[in-house]
């Protein structure tokens, strides 16, 4: 009888030990036991949006301070503008497909767009050249001033980062997390490529150290950044810096600034906030004359 009672007691105790051990394991694995800053699920909640935004201000700022980046030159432009050889290859491939399916309306539309993009491919070369000019000049003075900064993506952004890469100089990429998969281009300086979730925080870092901004032909994103900077300059929230619209023919078709002035919606002084340029040397002269 005693042996039976002892066996039952030991069995119950063994079960209790297992239960307690299992409970402790559950405690340690619970998200509530994680340090708050290590709780990814918590950080991704709506209530933590302010914290996430603060992190997106602080993380790049600490890195740029550590790297002693004094000033930057922003280069914006279309993601679909590629270098001439790539653009020509895409156009040729589409034309070949059309010869096999000459009645395809979608191919005809695609070819028209590809022809238009091919006509813009020289801007890729200009962005690369301008970036190299700026970087080489800065290299002789301070490798941490007038550092090229882009959105870190393809197209004109790639060209600008590539120009700095050609010069053996630093460049920054401020990439953004989008629903459609996007990767940074291969020419950004490792350790100076940042990924953002919020456009507002990304814009903050674009403008903060900017000594100049060059806008090549682009779409909604380029226009958004352009008007952001024009507004900051118009309202005096940003100091006077060169804002250059590269490709007068393109920009005068896209935005009729004179019409805005004629309608009384902007002042005459607002028309002097920006300048047009059609060559890398011309753009560089505007930047150098105002900054040196």
Description:
With 292 residues, this protein is of the alpha/beta class. The protein folds into 2 domains: 48-81 and 121-291, Rossmann fold (3-Layer(aba) Sandwich), CATH 3.40.50; 84-119, no CATH class. Helices cover 56% and strands 11% of the residues. It is built from 12 helices and 7 strands. The protein has a 7-stranded parallel sheet with strand order 4-3-2-1-5-6-7, sandwiched between helices. Strand 5 (210-215), helix 9 (220-234) and strand 6 (243-246) form a beta-alpha-beta unit. Helix 3 (49-66) packs parallel to helix 8 (199-208), helix 4 (84-100) packs antiparallel against helix 5 (105-119) and helix 6 packs parallel to helix 12 (280-291). The protein is globular. The N and C termini lie far apart (100 Å). The model has no long low-confidence stretch (mean pLDDT 93).
Q: Care to give the gist of this entry?
A:
By secondary structure, this protein is an alpha/beta fold. 56% of the residues lie in helices and 11% in strands. The protein folds into two domains: 48-81 and 121-291, Rossmann fold, CATH 3.40.50.450; 84-119, no CATH class.
